[in-house]
Write a structure and sequence with these properties.
mainly alpha, disordered C terminus
């Protein structure tokens, strides 16, 4: 006997358990994010203050998220619910100031989101919505997760900036962390012909947030170092903007670079 609705029932029931897991994971993450905002403890303003801590408003970049049904189900699979779980555990550990546990969870989160980001990059963009609601969130998530690894490490093992002056070791680790973040920023900028603009914007966002939160009165070294790296990060953003311009003009060859683009961006 033919089915009244054709194959729609099969389509709806396919990957049902994974769909349920994604919904539950999204609810947990959304609930954790809302809790950090409405919590009476005001966690963004009362956490441990380090010499690597950005301004509290920078954490609102965390709320950029999106889903793409086909890619999520067919390519990413169970890694997305795993990422949701790790994200929720990180938020819980961080809000309770269990920074060492939070560091473990954010490292695993960064590892999982790196795999997801690579899968997303392999897909072909079909329209504007695919790029905005699928590629954009995971690029931002990846850049922010990398930044949070360093922040959480400073919270777990660094000195309290409100009670202790910055010693030479603190300054050295802050500068090395800035260098590593800048290397990640450069890698984003040159990861493709058009670069990874959301990733570059995320790293630049973090640098400027550190500049705001770490005034010269507290640590002149941290403030001016962060400002220098923040200004340099704008070059990576500009590189991505130029790459996107040539991409949308169609001036690239089968490898992604045209001769004019290569000359402008330093290619050979």
């Amino acid at each position: 006997m033919p089915r009244l609705f054709g194959s729609s029932q099969n389509s709806w029931s396919q990957h049902l358990l994974l769909k349920i897991a994604n919904v539950v994971g999204a609810i947990f993450v959304m609930g954790g994010n809302v809790y950090t905002v409405i919590s009476p403890w005001d966690v963004y303003y009362t956490g441990k203050e380090t010499y690597f801590t950005p301004a509290p408003w920078s954490f609102f970049i965390w709320y950029f998220s999106g889903r793409g049904k086909e890619v999520i189900l067919d390519r990413i699979g169970w890694r997305l619910p795993l990422l949701d779980f790790l994200n929720a555990m990180y938020i819980y550990s961080w809000t309770t100031q269990e920074y060492r546990y939070a560091l473990v969870f954010v490292i695993f989160s960064a590892s999982v989101v790196t795999q997801i980001r690579e899968e997303v990059k392999k897909t072909t963009l079909r329209n504007f919505c695919d790029e905005v609601f699928l590629h954009l969130p995971f690029s931002i998530y990846h850049g922010w997760a990398v930044s949070l690894i360093f922040l959480t490490a400073f919270e777990a093992f660094g000195v309290d900036a409100l009670t202790q002056p910055a010693d030479p070791w603190s300054k050295a680790f802050v500068f090395l962390s800035f260098v590593f973040l800048q290397m990640v920023d450069i890698a984003y900028a040159y990861s493709a012909a058009e670069g990874d603009l959301p990733g570059c914007l995320t790293i630049s966002w973090y640098f400027f947030a550190v500049v705001v939160q770490q005034p010269p009165e507290r640590s002149a070294f941290t403030h001016w170092s962060a400002l220098g790296f923040a200004i340099f990060s704008l070059c990576c953003i500009m590189r991505c903007v130029i790459g996107l311009e040539f991409r949308y003009r169609g001036r690239h060859n089968r490898l992604g670079f045209g001769e004019e683009t290569a000359r402008l961006l330093g290619g050979h």
